[in-house]
Amino acid sequence: MELKDILILADQLVFMRKGRHLTDLEQAILQGTIENQTYSEIANKYHCSSGHLRYVASELWQVISDQLGENIKKSNFIATVKRLKIDNIKNHENHSLEEFRHQMYYESDDAILKDSAISIDQITPLEFKHITINQLKELIKQTVIETIAEMFRDLENNANMNQELQQKLLLIKNQQQG
User: Fold this and answer.
1) Engineering a disulfide at 42: which of 3, 32, 51, 74 sits with its beta carbon 3.0 to 4.6 angstroms away?
2) DSSP code per residue over 111-124
3) Confidence of residue 90 (pLDDT cuts 50, 70, 90)
């Protein structure tokens, strides 16, 4: 995987989490990581303190970790990105649920809709990026239908409770009159 590809991936992950693009220093941290530089070497090259660079790097690794759902740090970043890319390309015979769901997004535009166990609140940010507009519309439609059905169940329960209360009030009224 080339530096350009890694920067694009990291920029997308940061944007999804923070609503902003990679800073020059964050790009330098990624480039330095790829070039096997120490934090001190990267800090010297970009004229900042090693402590500040370590702080920015820690924040960057945390954002990437949150978005990928794995513990990412300088020492495992390259291996993790390579593994994720290979996982997305090759066919698996035995999948974990997460790998299976992730691969579905790359194999078919409508594949996400074939797994009825997936709801909109279960989709990770990385998966959400690969959803087409039609898939998003379908997921929203499913969510709205489920919400409306739940509202009707609540209304029905409330109606039943009201009917029971009315019967009890009538019974109490009859007892008081009798």
Assistant:
1) 32
2) HHHH-TT--GGG--
3) very low
CA distance 127 to 178: 68
Pure H helices in the chain: 3-18, 24-34, 39-45, 50-68, 77-89, 97-107, 111-114, 125-128, 133-177
Asked whether the whole model's pTM tops 0.70, one would answer no
Q: Which residues neighbour 119 within 8 Å (Cβ) at sequence distance 6 or greater?
A: 139, 142, 143, 146
Q: What is the CB neighbour count within 10 angstroms for residue 14?
A: 20
Buried b vs exposed e over 57-68: b needs ≥16 C-beta within 10 Å? Answer: beebbebbbebb
* Residues in the chain, total: 178
Dihedral sign, Cα of residue 88, residue 29, residue 23, residue 4: negative
Q: For 17-27, write each residue's pLDDT tens digit.
A: 888 899 999 99
In whole angstroms, what separates CA 42 from the centre of its chain? 30
